[in-house]
Design goal:
This protein is of the alpha/beta class. The protein contains 16 helices and 14 strands. Bound molecules: adenosine-5'-triphosphate.
């Protein structure tokens, strides 16, 4: 015995707390119509988690709560408690007694409690399913529902039978697994779609990464080439600059020297500009000499004349000493002097001119008269005069001679002066010519040197350009390859023999080779730029992350596939198990069905037949309680699916009736009871509640019914709501339900004899 008691509080007509104890295998509940008997059966359905309000004869949840009467106000809550004896661990809980409780409120849903602790409906359903107390309620046959199994569709019938066979748990597991499989498939689809979504990004990143790898290799190549190029370029620039600086030194020094020389030469040239003054001085000296010469000549002539006069006078003196008194001795010199005077007169003038000629003759006459007069006087004057004259002449001569001497000295001095001046001029002429020559030479050399320096400057300028390019290359190199490029300074370049090249040796290389190197560098740069790749580290990280995510998703899919496979296998196993159990169960039921049927009808045959698959139809959820929880449960049980159904084939003794529809009410009841009992016999449920299942039976059949009930009670606890005396007689305990004017159902434990009376 598994049921201990049922307690109703505020449930339907049981306004007050009412408890039914079930300590016998068969308990009967009796009472007049409308007293509330069926409400107790519904209390069982209710506490076991029934979701259909209709099946508890209500429209709304409130219909299940004591609605009040003039005598007693309505309740706001209804609760039903069912106590199980769990010593045999009927329910999968490690306690000896289990109390299930369901409470409803007018304004809220249901509460479920197991041993006082709130649980979900699902927990209740699972707990009961494990104890073969199914949801289809094959063990609770409500009033007028005895032939429900006959009226049911094949699918419903199958469900009832599955439930009765305890296959619900497998079915439930199968449906759970199917749901899980569906969810798994859905998840797989989602994960696959995620993978598909990120796939283009990954392939894009992969290409980027390939580009980056390629760029990396190119960069290494560029770094090598660049390093070589930069090292050589740096050496070339440095060495070339040094060379230019060296080459500049000599011409610069020479130029500065030349400048100095040029200044000197120019000064010399400037100085020769005093030449004109000297020339003027020469002219002045020459004029002076000329006048000296004239003076000297005049003085010489005077001296000569005086000498002649003196000599004449002296000769005359001598002559006069030896001559006659009337004669006068005239010295030849005087005569010559006279002639000279006359010559002087005649040669001085133009003889062609008559006037002049006359004047000349006049002059000659004068000279002659003067001469004659002079000598007449002399004749008189005597010898004394002569001596006096000679003396005077000598004195005069001496005076002239002195003057001549002075003039001659002056002339000599002046001549010397002139000579010196001329020598000076000559000398100056020479040095000026040399200076001019020097200036030209210096200027020519300066030009030459300027040319050389200009050429060097052009080279220096070119080097400046190269240096600018070099610096730009460095900046570009750092941007493109990184700061490693600056390591070119510490780089060592070797020649063919493995000897380290010094900067000088590097510059010996043909510039064309370096140009070629630069072209290669440029080409590489272009290739690197073309290769692109963006920020390497970031892309690599992103690629890695995306890849990891993809691999994670791939693993996820694999895991999901694995669990889907496990689920499919489980489903297949469950289906096979279900099928086997179902077919085996049907066979067993058929054997019992045949027994009960022939017992009831005194012969004939009946059996269940498995029909071809029919469409499962979703259960109507209109009258469901407990919202989403219930809907979820209904969904678990429903959904369209191809399944086999169950047909009932009957063969009444002595009648040719095979279709169920053609059976009488009693026959239908008997057939249903036979089937229900057969089902309960094969897999006995812990308890069976039969609400007036025996209503349509006549006395003979009531007896048989009573026997069968007793038989059933060996395996299942029975609660029989009945008006049937025969049935009542089989019960260990009989409860009488009464309802007074207040509309409240009341319970009393009664003896069999009373029961018959109470039932009426
Ligand atoms: P019968 O022998 O005719 O089948 P019964 O003993 O099975 O009758 P029930 O159908 O269990 O009687 O009880 C019906 C009674 O319960 C009715 O009188 C009805 O008014 C009452 N009832 C049902 N729901 C409520 C409720 N929510 N509040 C009060 N009374 C209720």
């Amino acid at each position: 015995m598994h049921l201990k008691s049922l307690e109703l509080t505020g449930f339907k007509s049981f306004a007050k707390k009412t408890e039914l104890s079930f300590n016998t295998p068969i308990t009967s509940i009796v009472g007049p119509n409308g007293s509330g008997k069926s409400n107790t059966a519904e209390a069982f359905r209710f506490v076991l988690g029934e979701q259909s309000i209709k099946s508890m004869r209500g429209k709304r949840t409130e219909d299940l709560i004591w609605n009040g009467s003039p005598e007693m106000g309505r309740s706001n809550r209804a609760s039903v408690k069912l106590v199980f004896d769990n010593r045999k661990r009927l329910l999968n809980l490690d306690v000896d007694e289990v109390t299930l409780e369901r409470v409803i409120y007018r304004d809220a849903g249901s509460e479920y409690l197991v041993n006082g602790s709130p649980v979900r409906l699902r927990d209740i359903v699972e707990l009961l399913a494990g104890a073969h107390i199914g949801a289809s309620g094959h063990h609770i046959i409500s009033q007028g529902e005895a032939d429900r199994i006959l009226n049911a569709t094949m699918r419903e019938r199958r469900e009832m039978i599955e439930d009765a066979l305890g296959l619900k748990i497998y079915q439930w597991k199968r449906e759970e697994s199917e749901k899980k499989l569906e969810r798994t498939d859905e998840n797989m689809k989602q994960v696959a779609s995620l993978r598909r979504e990120i796939a283009p990004h990954i392939s894009f990143l992969k290409k980027q990464v390939e580009k980056i790898e390629k760029t990396k290799l190119l960069k290494v190549e560029l770094q090598m080439l660049y390093g070589d190029y930069l090292k050589r370029e740096h050496a070339y620039i440095t060495v070339s600059k040094q060379k230019i600086a060296e080459e500049e030194q000599t011409p610069k020094a020479e130029l500065s020297e030349l400048n100095h020389k040029l200044a000197t030469s120019k000064k010399v040239l400037e100085e020769t500009h005093g030449k004109d003054a000297k020339t003027k001085a020469i002219i002045a000296i020459e004029e002076k000499l000329n006048s000296f010469r004239k003076e000297r000549e005049a003085l010489s002539r005077e001296v000569g004349r005086l000498e002649g006069e003196i000599a004449g006078a002296e000769r005359l003196q001598k002559i006069q000493g030896a001559q006659q008194p009337d004669s006068v001795v005239i010295p030849l010199s005087e005569v010559e002097g006279l002639v000279k005077q006359i010559d002087a007169v005649s040669t001085d003038e133009d003889e062609q001119d008559a006037g002049i000629l006359i004047a000349t003759i006049t002059r000659i006459k004068e000279v002659m008269h003067v001469f004659l007069e002079k000598h007449r006087r002399k004749k008189g004057e005597g010898a004394e005069d002569m001596a006096k004259e000679i003396g005077e002449l000598s004195t005069k001569k001496k005076g002239f001679e002195e003057k001549l001497r002075v003039v001659q000295e002056e002339e000599k001095k002046t001549q010397e002066e002139e000579r010196a001046l001329r020598a000076e001029i000559d000398k100056e002429k020479d040095s000026s010519r040399d200076a001019e020559k020097e200036v030209f030479r210096i200027m020519a050399r300066q030009n030459e040197l300027h040319g050389t320096l200009n050429a060097l400057r052009v080279r220096a300028h070119e080097l400046e350009h190269l240096e600018g390019d070099f610096k730009r290359e460095l900046t570009e190199g750092v941007l493109l390859v990184g700061r490693e490029i600056l390591e070119y300074e510490t780089r060592e370049l070797k020649d063919g023999n493995g000897q380290t090249l010094n900067p000088q040796a590097m510059t010996l290389e043909d510039r064309a080779t370096q140009e070629e190197r630069r072209r290669k560098v440029e080409k590489l740069k272009i290739r690197i730029e073309d290769a692109g790749g963006g920020n390497g580290a970031e892309v690599l990280k992103e690629f890695q992350e995306a890849n990891e995510r993809d691999q994670f998703l791939a693993r996820e899919i694999a895991d999901l596939e694995q669990s889907a496979e496990t689920l499919r296998n489980l489903i297949a196993e469950l289906e096979q198990k279900l099928d086997e159990e179902f077919r085996g169960g049907i066979e067993k039921i058929n054997a019992e069905f045949q027994n009960y049927f022939s017992l009831m009808f005194g012969g004939g045959s009946a059996k269940l037949a498995i029909t071809k698959p029919e469409k499962r139809i979703r259960r109507d959820v209109d009258d469901l309680m407990d919202g989403g929880d219930a809907a979820a449960l209904a969904a678990t049980e429903g959904e369209e699916k191809q399944e086999t159904g169950i047909d009932i084939e009957v063969n009444l003794p002595r009648k040719k009736i095979k279709a169920l529809m053609m059976l009488s009410g009693g026959e239908r009841a008997l057939t249903s009871i036979a089937l229900l009992f057969a089902m309960s016999q094969v897999k006995p449920p812990p308890f069976i509640i039969l609400d007036e299942t025996d209503a349509a039976l006549d006395e003979a059949n009531s007896k048989k019914y009573g026997d069968m009930v007793e038989n059933l009670s060996k395996h299942s606890q029975l609660i029989l709501i009945t008006h049937n005396r025969e049935t009542m007689s089989r019960a260990g305990v009989i409860y009488g339900v009464t309802m007074d004017k207040s509309g409240v159902s009341k319970l009393l434990s009664i003896a069999f004899d009373e029961a018959v009376a109470v039932a009426k």
